[in-house]
Amino acid sequence: MSMTPRLDLRQAPSLVMTPRLQQAIRLLQLSSADIIAYVEEEVERNPLLEHAAGDDTDPGDADTPDRFPDPETGFLDAYPGAATELPLDQDFNTHRDNDIAGAESWGHDDAGALAAGSALIWDSGHSGGDLPDTGLENHADHGDTLLDHLERQITLDIPEGPEQWIARQLLLHLDETGYLTASTADVAAALGLDVDAVDAVLKRLQAMDPPGLFARSLGECLALQLADRNRLDPAMEALLANLELLAAGDLDALGTLCGVQHDDLDDMIREIRTLDPKPALRFERLSIQTRIPDVYILPRGDDDWQVELNSAALPRVIVNNRYYATLSRSAPDPEVRAYLSESLASANWLARALDQRARTVLRVSSEIARRQSAFFSRGVRFLKPMTLRDVAEAVEIHESTVSRATANKTIACPRGLFEMKYFFTQAISGADGEALSAETVRDQLRSLVEAEPPDCPLSDEALVSALKSEGIDIARRTVAKYREALGIPSSVHRRKKNRGKPVRS
């Protein structure tokens, strides 16, 4: 059989990815910050494009819905981190009399007011000597933000799963000076978790660099830094518990409470002065609230939720057709007219693409809110299993479109700020045939371990039985896999750790 080359013509349908289609797909998966930057570039480049009237390209300046607390500053009733402390505005390198001459202000606007309850957070640029040496220059690059710095540590030091999630929720309540602005009880209530679980994660966050972060008061901030130096002894604890005496200059009473002599108290005060009362200020000021929600999910009734797009994260453009008509009539050069026609087509396409992107994100978010209404009402234990295909079939779009529409997007709800991808979890079969979210099972497993007797930790087999009694029927190897993913050691290691015995590797 001879083989000879020949030409054939054949008709067949195929999908052609035009440059505009590729660009529209890329726009869909951009984050709010990236889409704002892209639109800003297009407005600068295209003479026929303008920002819509009232459009603000800075999402951080926009107001959140009236019926929804500000997700940037916290979803809870926060309290000021150091509001109960009195200002330390005295120079304590003086003689030990009640005349505290040469008192200094440490940079806070209210530092001169010695009334009880006046806010105090020292300024790192105080005039009382050199800046505190916290070693931050060895850890944070120039221009590094506090959010970036902490995100890296959270990823490395805290296991994936509920603990990382709790850590990132606490990160939302960190102010620009490094203080936690919400109580763990309020955070736990908002997330539908036990306070002990949030306290455990907070303890790990307080051990991160730089020391002093995530404190809820000035005294706790200073205590964390002293503990990092291995200098938090009972005398220092007594001093930090009576900072109001230090502010009032009543050093005799303070020395009595601390149980130290005057010279020792002077040394303690000098060491306090080397600490950093605002451990986050050496980072860039854009350090905390850089994640802007793309969608708000607002309560409207029992298990009924309203979905709204964040207008601040949706740049709006208009096409100046009048300007195009004026230029076209006065442009004799064919190349200029061709450029104007191309600019008009590009402007119209961008306006349509942004509108389509917003509609797609809204449809997908609405379906997420409908399927996960129990989670928004009652917490992570009620998170339902959900896949990209489930949402795609419900809103009648392709699964890959759902994946792009949820990429780099966040949802703000009364329970916190969540990545859209968080709501997509695999299903675990329950004892009664009901499908459970894998995230729900992991959370239940963590709760069982936290509640176990210290002297008798639960084995994997015992955890299987305990989960089965609560309607979760999974294999022992699945329990072991989830336990390891949560960073929970085996029952043998937990028992030895509780007894204070070393564990052989």
TrEMBL record:
Residues 137-323 form the RNA polymerase sigma factor 54 core-binding domain. One of its GO terms (cellular component) is DNA-directed RNA polymerase complex. Keywords: DNA-binding, DNA-directed RNA polymerase, Nucleotidyltransferase, Sigma factor, Transcription, Transcription regulation, Transferase. Residues 338-496 form the RNA polymerase sigma factor 54 DNA-binding domain. GO terms for biological process: DNA-templated transcription initiation. Transmembrane segments: none annotated. GO terms for molecular function: DNA binding; DNA-binding transcription activator activity; nucleotidyltransferase activity; sigma factor activity. NCBIfam families: PRK05932.1-3, PRK12469.1, rpoN_sigma. Belongs to the sigma-54 factor family. Sigma factors are initiation factors that promote the attachment of RNA polymerase to specific initiation sites and are then released. This is RNA polymerase sigma-54 factor. It comes from Phaeovibrio sulfidiphilus. The gene is rpoN.
